[in-house]
């Protein structure tokens, strides 16, 4: 169980701080999507699901801070720890499934040219219900608690049975989905690169091409599986490291806490950046269009004036 070491206290202090920043970023992103009514389009709804799941996950991560005084009342804090572990497992799986569905949707559209917008309900239902079924398993087997490999409320790996359970319920599936998402993104990038080269060589891409318009909107969603890869890999590596080292390393624990928070914060940051870039490009496009219309209007006016002058000249009566 927890101890009063500096590592434990500092770790429990870091979690609420870094996750509070993540919560703020996700709240700002969610407010932007709702305020600008961007949720009416599928792309932003998929992004909003990512942000909301990241917001909940960060909120649970911040709860780790209440365990800083665990030793003062192990019985009460033990129950709190079980609840936090349950919620953490649920929210991590929710974020993982939403990321998996985003990758699947992008792959089907970009590679298979299939728009699966009708599956949105399936995306949401499975991402909310499946994590609940998985999170219940450690609760039944009493596997939630304060893990000795990092003083974090989770599926503790203090015994070989508990380690296998965590490997089966999170580390293993997360690694498989991570590999699948990575392969899918590589295929998507290769496919898009070949299509762009072929289209630019034989057929110019016009503003009226609906496929490329839709793809341009969907492509920012690729950031979510990429960010999952960047921030989840260190966490999985640490879980493997912890099986060989019973004493947690302070620097590594802080890094894992930061990676956990950044996984959530980056989801909100991605949406904020996407919205900002889209609006800036939209304004530039409108300004360019306005200039083009103005130039066209001046050109037409000039031609009309020239034509009227020519008409008056040709119809003028001969001088006497």
Structure summary:
By secondary structure, the chain is mainly alpha-helical. Helices cover 77% and strands 2% of the residues. It is globular and about 65 Å long.
Q: Count helical runs.
A: 8
Give Rg in angstroms.
Answer: 28 Å
Helical amount among residues, as a percent range? over 70%
Q: What order do the SSEs take from the amino end to the carboxyl end, as H and E? A: HHHHEEHHHH
Q: What does the average pLDDT come to?
A: 77
Principal-axis shape equals: globular
Class from secondary-structure proportions: mainly alpha
> Low-confidence segments, ≥5 residues, pLDDT <50?
1-7, 303-307, 309-320
The percent range for strand residues is: under 5%
Q: Name the quaternary structure.
A: single chain
Total DSSP E strands: 2
The main pleated sheet reads as:
2 strands, antiparallel
In angstroms, what separates the terminal alpha carbons?
117 Å
* Strand line-up in the sheet with most strands: 1-2
Draw up the topology in text.
Blueprint: H1 6-35, H2 42-62, H3 74-110, H4 120-140, E1 144-147, E2 152-155, H5 160-202, H6 210-218, H7 223-242, H8 250-315
Antiparallel strand pairs: 1-2
Question: How would you describe this structure to a colleague?
Answer:
- This protein has a two-stranded antiparallel sheet with strand order 1-2.
- It has 320 residues and is mainly α.
- It has helices spanning 6-35, 42-62, 74-110, 120-140, 160-202, 210-218, 223-242, 250-315, and strands spanning 144-147, 152-155.
- Helix 3 (74-110) runs parallel beside helix 5 (160-202) and helix 7 runs antiparallel to helix 8.
- The model is unreliable at 1-7, 303-307 and 309-320 (pLDDT under 50).
